[in-house]
Specification:
The protein has 303 residues and is of the alpha/beta class. It is 33% helix and 22% strand. The longest helix has 26 residues, at 172-197. It is globular, with a radius of gyration of 20 Å.
Length: 303
Amino acid sequence: MSLKRVLPLAALMLCTPALTGTAPALASPQEEAASGGPLRILLTNDDGYNAPGIRKAFERLTAAGHDVTIVAPLTNQSGTGTKMMSAPSVTVKHPEPKVWAVDGTPGDSVAFGLAEVFADRAPDLVVSGTNFGPNVAGLATHSGTVGGAVAALEHGVPAIALSTGGVSAPDPVTTVNAMGPTLDFAVKLIDRLRSRARSGPLLPQGVGLNVNHPVVGADGKGTAAGVAATFQDPQTILEPDFTDAGDGTWKVTVKVDLRPAAKGGDVEAVSAGRIAVSPMNADWNTGPADTALASVLIAGLRP
């Protein structure tokens, strides 16, 4: 998402204890988990509760020792961004232990999970994904995967959005294969957050991570060329075209329109076979410099 008030990842990872201030005398459940106990993870996505990415994530995170509960959309909700249904009722299914399927968006799923499934106390972390296909540049702005993570951040819960794919149209077989390395990295990243957090929360308040793992190798099972702290590239990637059918409807086609990648951005990293890790926050504030600019722009204006 185009969320500008973020920290360079290196500073975020190295300075988390300082950013979060002095820990209280009595550690919170999140602080206890960060110090070494198993994490209680709410796992969501936008591809649906039974999609390969979330099921592989459940297996891998559970194997790593975490207590994982799926609370995810009942059906595919790709492209819903931060949408919330705000309906008077919602259908929720509980098809198996540790799995809840919400007939709504990723944001609805996270809201239900935090209010009901984790009503006793909030999870230590929300992981959204891994998504089928990338969520870089403008794709992230409209991503339900990222939207699920944003919903968690709005409630004060640390969150990571995970996506698997290159900048071209995803191939089903290689993308699913690449979910293995994606989740191996996610486990390492979570371990790093825990070790850096010490007795504090996993991430600074209101800051999440948007992680994009490339597809590497002919079979998708290859190892990424490295890890890069990135920002969201300011390009759309997908361009729609509308053709008048003459009957009041318009045919819509979408094509990939990839422009030169911004240096240091997520598109550049993924295109080079590296894992892009972009800090993000849950609001649309762009920072004090832009606030000052807005003050200049409106100076002297009256209703």
